[in-house]
Amino acid sequence: MRGLPGLLAFAALIATPAAAQLSPAEQVIVETVEAHHEADIALLERLVNQNSGTHNHAGVKAVADMLAPEFEALGFEVEWIDQSAAGRAGHLFARHEGKPSTTRMLLIGHLDTVFEPSSPFQTFVREGDRGIGPGAEDMKGGDVVILAALRAMKAAGTLQDANIVVAMTGDEEDAGDPLDAARADLIAAGEWADVALGFEALAKIDGRDMSSVARRSSNSWQLEATGKTGHSSGIFQEQVGYGAVYEMARILDAFRRKLPEENLTFNVGFMAGGTPAEVGEDGLSASTVGKTNIIPSKAVAKGDLRTLTQEQTDRIVAAMQAIVDQNLPGTDATISFDFRYPAMAPTQGNRDLLAKLNAINADLGLERMEEFPPSRRGAADISFVAPLVGAALAGMGADGAGGHAEGEYVDLPSMIRQAQRAAILMSRLSQEPRD
């Protein structure tokens, strides 16, 4: 039995693939991220403590001003892109020119949060491995992961060959108007890039890290139904018809019965019906008046539409329009759509990129990352560029929970493995020729 401890130690050594396939430069990346972790947490705390609700333009710019010197110290050319014409603060872009004719990479983050200055949730608090604060998970933790990865690449000497654009939008939580103007610079960067990496929060299932090769769209619709009004005793009669509310009910129930399919949702956010009924100027409310003995003349409703591909979007929009057009007697209806965030469809290129990331996971001794169900994630800025690049992955940021609510937190140790994964992936991509 005397030799058993040594045998067990040898068995453990050969069974552990951690760092087994890492190059010397990649080992430097691993060590640099770990060594700089506490400084990264300190930066995260400063970012979180600066309110940057989307409509706090000065706060969004202040976060950009904190991040800009960090990128400049790594040799990036930094640009602030004013978005006042779109009613928003602006975007921070950082660019690094590397070896010609190699993979061009676009890293996507955002500066804003959902927490405006009026929110009581304003301060970073560290509790063990959790960093609690507004935007800690969505997505200031991811912004710090970007910097941690690039800093480690710099230390390892792999940044010098890398062609990278970092795009941090200032209005991801509430995009500016017109949307084409608000996303023009991001789309231009997507047209330049070969690969896009989105650094919003890491997805997990049952404690296991997952990767997002797809994200659904986020669009909205508005429905209006009209009918002949009059005394309620005449409803359903040929000369009067069914009224606006029954027409609205017919349409929404037909949506429920006829449209459902995989990866599709269509929520009804609010509705109203009466004589009259109107959507509020803010687009977020509705008002109505009426009496029980009056047939309602108008009904309104607004909702969202989430799809996995553009083909699915086009097909469902056509199906919704066909349902709307089948009016009850004495009624009419119209539907309009506001297309905001497109879908990031699952592609072979995305899955090939995940395979490269999983090779890195094996080299780091980490578990294989499976695909996260797209129905469980919302829309994101990466969707604007995913159709333009050869490959895209989302969820490259830090793990956490509670996003968009008081108590939101980031899992601080997750920042280490996410920065290591990203830095090694970018280092390897930087040596690949463009297709």
What this model shows, in words?
With 435 residues, the chain is α+β, with helices and mostly antiparallel strands. The protein folds into two domains: 17-215 and 344-429, 3-Layer(aba) Sandwich (Aminopeptidase); 218-341, 2-Layer Sandwich (Alpha-Beta Plaits). It contains twelve helices and 19 strands. The strands form five sheets. A six-stranded mixed β-sheet has the order 1-2-6-3-7-17, with helices on both faces. A four-stranded antiparallel β-sheet has the order 4-5-19-18. Helix 3 (37-49) runs antiparallel to helix 5 (136-156).
Question: What are the salient characteristics of this protein?
Answer:
435 residues; alpha+beta; Aminopeptidase; Alpha-Beta Plaits; 4-stranded antiparallel β-sheet; 12 helices; disordered N terminus; signal; Peptidase_M20_dimer
Write a compact overview of the structure shown.
The protein is of the alpha+beta class and 435 residues long. The protein has 12 helices and 19 strands.
Largest sheet: 6 strands, mixed
Shape: elongated
> Overall pLDDT, averaged?
94
CATH homologous group name of the largest domain: Zn peptidases
Helix/strand/pairing class, anyone? alpha+beta
In CATH terms, what is the architecture of the largest domain? 3-Layer(aba) Sandwich
The number of helical segments is 12
How many beta-strand segments? Answer: 19
| Strand content bin | 15-25%
**Which value, in Å, is the CA radius of gyration?**
26 Å
Helical content (DSSP H or I, runs of 4+):
25-40%
Any low-confidence stretches, pLDDT <50, length ≥5?
1-19
What is the name of the CATH class of the largest domain?
Answer: Alpha Beta
Keywords: Hydrolase, Metal-binding, Signal
InterPro entries: Bact_exopeptidase_dim_dom, Peptidase_M20, Peptidase_M20_dimer, Peptidase_M20A
Domain Peptidase M20 dimerisation: 213-330
Signal peptide: 1-20
